[in-house]
Amino acid sequence: MVYCETMACKQSCFTSQGITNGIDMNFKNLPLLNAIIAVFTVGLCWGIIIPVTSVILEGMAVATPVIGLMASAIFIGMAIGAPGVGKLIERFGIKPVLLSGLTVSGVLMVILALFTSVPIWIALRFALGITFGAVIISSEVLINLVSSDDNRGRNLGLYAFAFSFSLMITPVALWLVTFGTGVPFIFGGLACLAAAFFMRTTIRVDRRDTSAAPSLVQRLFTRISLSLMTNFIAGFMEGSLIALIPLYALREGFNPVQTGILLSAFMIGHGGSPPFIGMLADRIGLRRVLALVYLLGIAVFVIIVAGTFRMGLALPLMLAGMSVGALYPLAVGIIGERLSSEDLPRGNAMITAAYGMGSILGPLLPSIIMHVTAPRSLFIISAFLYVVVLIVMRLQSRQKSSDREREGV
Question: What is the model's pTM?
Fold first, then answer.
């Protein structure tokens, strides 16, 4: 017995033997809207935690490495918790996991407001990584289940834009600190609880039997290897570039104001590109667009390394942001095409874990290389990783062509 969502779209019903029986697609019960609200809320909380805790800890004279460990705790929780989240969705369905993730996140955010102990905060952020991951994985499975090949890219592009937009507006949380250090956390917690209450009334859930079983992990790994690599690269690139572009700019002689402008250019490209990339993917295919995104990134990173820029660097950084911001939704979309509904929870959990691991390593490894070499090595590493994935994509395409030829013989 599993929980299953119910959908009716244009008088027809999306059915499967797996975790869903369908999801009502009328205005009141729109899966895409639910997923966007869920990920926007998680992004809002995420964006509140990062700057507010850093400011508070800095005021407490906490050592920088400890602040860095706290920043990584969310990604560690996400990477470790993701496999368990996939199993929970397989057993109970999307709605219970999604609502539980939002509710527990809201409670943990309020608890953050009650304590300023560093060990407690690290533990709470680790737990929030697990609950945020539950919301993200559930939302992505939901979108993939109700999307077709004609609108999957657009839907995931809007989903990714909602997350990026929530992060862009969260610096306002620093203003809320003036009313008390706990106020931003309480605000985020209430937002989670409100979103959970809204979704409780907008997704109808039935209980159904299931006879289908998910595929073996080894088989899943083979089928979603490209998405796994892409999501790892997405986490790695976001973690390294967002954290280290300011360091690169300062070491290249830019002043703090110019550095802020350059980082903003990257973030605008990162947050604004997914909807347009998604629409293009619906027209020409997700894999083709992914290859174009990697080619764009390689070209831009080479230009940055080879060129001499002042504020003109903002344009290539914006294009770099576009190439990085498109990776995550494209990876999620590809597994939606490749996997059955029974395999989606575990597949989404695997690529979310890959993203978490990339986000952990992203700020660390390039910073070490930058320390012992030149600042521009940041973009050399980025170009190298993109080239590696393009080579893998080419080898996979050749293997598929070879397999088809053998089958035709």
Answer: 0.78
